[in-house]
Amino acid sequence: MSIFSSNNSLTARSSLLRRQPGSGPQRPSWDEEPGAATKAGTAVVLAVVVLAVLGPLYTIVLTSFSSQATITQAGGLVLVPGEMSLSAYQQILSGGVVTRAVLVSIGVTATGTALSMVVSVLCAYGLSRPGSFAHTPILFTLLVTMFFSAGIIPAYLLVSGLGLINTYWALILPSCISVFNIIILRGFFMGMDRGILDSARIDGASEWRTLTQIVLPMSKAVTAVIALFYGVGYWNAFFNAVLYINDSSMNPLQVVLRSYVLQGVSVAGQVDVGSGAAAGPALQMAVIVLAMVPILIVYPFVQKHFTKGVMIGAVKG
Amino acid sequence: MSTGTEHQAAPPSAHAVRRMAAPKAAAGRGGNGTDQAAALARPKANLKLRFARDRSLVFMVLPAVVLLGIFAYVPMLGNVVAFQDYSPYIGIPDSPWVGLENFARVFADGDFWLAVKNTLTITAFQLLFFFPIPIALALLLNSLVNPGLRAVIQSVVYLPHFFSWVLVVSVFQQIFGGAGLLNQALRANGWQPVDIMTNPDTFLFLLTSQAVWKDAGWGIIVFLAALSAIDPAQYEAAAVDGAGRWKRMWHVTLPGLRSVIVLLLILRLGDSLTVGFEQMILQRDAVGAQASEVLDTFVYFTGVQNGDWSYAAAAGLVKGVVSLALILAANKIAHVFGESGVYSK
Predict the structure, then answer these.
(1) ipTM value of the model?
(2) B324 to chain A nearest CA, in Å?
(3) pTM, rounded to two decimals
């Protein structure tokens, strides 16, 4: 049905691959074994790619957990594990700017994601029946915003006109819904088995009940992926905070990350630098790690749904 | 997307693209995508009856429509300040109208044209050096036979897409900055440290490598999907006809990717006035405005920072209108070439 409807061809492919019983996957019989040079080249390139992603993360995480002595000895970033220490985390999480920023980010992300998901799921389901009342004009209204955005200045004037400057709502409401995400969800809902929805209606279920008790439980993969997209959006939001938040005590983690790591504001300045204090690099790295930890935690659970959730949802859009 | 709405701005189009590529293929093969849509379609009765029937559906859509109305459509109206001498103290209703004066000023402004030049240079550069990378990576990954290894590599390369720009720039700062890992190693070996993060001359390369690190992996999703949709029978037939690996790639794989490549290219062209806003803001202090000023940052600094609201709104409006025209034109071109484009005719 589409280039993305990989299901049929994927099964065809894997049955081809499994034609010869034996250990591990096999090449299809017509596909000759690549030469040693090709194999080595592929291996090297892929290894470099993986290293380029994981290498920086490794050294940053390692440095954040290293003791001052190890860092001084390494001359900055640590590549070989030495003496470990949690003092950087103890220092930045014992109250103060970073702690507050972490709490702000968690609060905004949780509230925002919940709100976005409720609004988006409802909207996507409401639009999943072509021919329903006002279906086409509403869909058009949504799609127009993907092609033309008003611009920064009017957006700022609006947020300030609504009195949202220096409120957490300024970090949530302007970016609350993404039409992309709604379209993906809608595509998934439209592709669901018609028979199940029909039998629900025959049994007397209202649309609300169909949505909450039948459609949602069947769409866990795609809703998980969309929730990840929204959650990551809120967690990573930086520019909205720069634009709409002037009160530095309300800054989310990304803004704090910028001031400590990119603008070189001293992290240690906020707490007394005693004997057990961590070195500057460890503190900076610890802030970086805090900014990526939630993503690293959620990612493995949602990642396996990317193909399933997003693709299938996208196919029938 | 210049309002800094992260969900829309951050992934430039990866999932949009997947969605948008669908209709054409669905129509092309007449698969169950269209059948199901047809099955779901509700019969047209008269309006009143339809509203009574679909009341709950309409209520479900309402919150999203209200939010979009306020945060997307009201700002569109707010663009009238571009035709005023707007002052925040007296508000839009009372600010004097000045016609096209602001636009005249914008077009006579060297800084504006510098921003235009930088924007287009960065877009062109990234089109050349960023765009092909996900395709190459996808082909490489696709050639792996071991599905487990493939899955592992895929999940690793997708990861940086979910990091914020602040994080990405911070990571680069730690590796390539003055006190970073690279210079640490250079100094340890008695060489001169190199200046990468603050050098305006190499800023283009820096920007592009950051974008590659963050999003090239994510970009392969769409190509992998297209690759897995190519019928294996085609490869088998080609092999039987004596085509080797390279011939098969040239005559089966690349044609299979054609429509996706064209679509992404068009989307990128239509989006060519928008380049990493946050990325620029974050590194502006380090490399200076001369190299890093793009249209979005120009609007932000003249408007929000310097309070020249009407002037910045005019510049922003020019950008928005030209972007819209570019998208429509690119789509038109796609139709001419027989591709589906972003939306169908």
Answers:
(1) 0.84
(2) 6
(3) 0.84
